[in-house]
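Final report, Chapter 2: Outcomes

The project's central promise was a pipeline that accepts a single protein chain and returns its three-dimensional structure in a standardized token representation, suitable for archiving and comparison. That pipeline is now operational. To close this chapter, we reproduce one record exactly as it appears in the project archive, with the input sequence first and the structure output second.
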Amino acid sequence: MSSSPPSRLPDPDKLDMLRRLDQFREWHSLDDKRFCLVCGKIIVGGQIQINGGTRGNGPLRLSCPTERCNSIPMDWVLPTDELVALATTTTSEDHNGASSKIADRDEEQGGLASRLRKFALHLKLAS
């Protein structure tokens, strides 16, 4: 299945699209951050992709900018200090090739990322 390329909009238009298409959280600027529950990355409003539209593939939709991540606004939460620390640690450990350490640490810390994913799934099922 082919999808349309992400839309390139001027910043004020992109912010307007984020505000209209993300019914779960408010966007104050393109610098606002979200934590993606699917890929575990911190994303910024300016990075979010806008796809589709009248000349694209169906209605406009927002998607995570992370490669191979298919998350949507429902999967993005406001980053807490704990989530930022988790994402920072995960990114640096991934960079060093220590992904098994992340899983071990996640288990030891009560599985924060795992609990967040389960919570997000619960929210998806409830809607």
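Archive annotation: Helices lie at 11-21, 81-95, 99-108, 112-126.
This record, like all others produced under the grant, will remain available to the consortium after the project formally closes.
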